[in-house]
Amino acid sequence: MWSDKKAIDFELIHDDAVNFLRSYEFTGKELVYCDHPYLRETRKKYARIYKYEYTREQHIKLLEVIKSLPCMVMISGYESKLYTESLKGWHSHSYKAGCHHGIATEWAWMNYPVPVELHGYRHLGDGFRERERIRKKSNRWIALIHANASIHSCSRSIHRAYVHRHKIPGLAR
């Protein structure tokens, strides 16, 4: 599984994304995740909540920059006409997340293909109850597989003992 591999290089930058993204020399092997101030008009509470808010123009500039990057990009936010139209053709996924005023539907847009293999299955399912149901079902299947393996092993031992004891031609190995 790819999650078992160790990261070779990692750098955390705390700066304005646009400045950094414009100056960075990409190799194409990077993943850029943008968790920027969400578009103000999409928030339930329209009031200023970030120390450094983004204007609509800054959102447009950020979208232009990330669309030009030669690497994998993921950006999160609330659904809006600006993001939906600007990131047309990108994969998107909605999910429930806690925010300042309860639970909200957030979106993640990605410019890379949807992974075929998950890095882990701990969060598989829509919510706690479904994850619990999946975990219990998975545990039942694992127990059944182990039980069947034990039965199979036992039956093979009985078969070998029977063939050996009765010296059945063609079956003895």
From TrEMBL:
It comes from the Bacteria. One of its GO terms (biological process) is mismatch repair. Keywords: Methyltransferase, S-adenosyl-L-methionine, Transferase. InterPro entries: MeTrfase_D12, SAM-dependent_MTases_sf. GO terms for molecular function: S-adenosyl-L-methionine binding; sequence-specific DNA binding; site-specific DNA-methyltransferase (adenine-specific) activity. Transmembrane segments: none annotated. This is Uncharacterized protein. The lineage of its organism: Bacteria, Pseudomonadati, Planctomycetota, Candidatus Brocadiia, Candidatus Brocadiales.
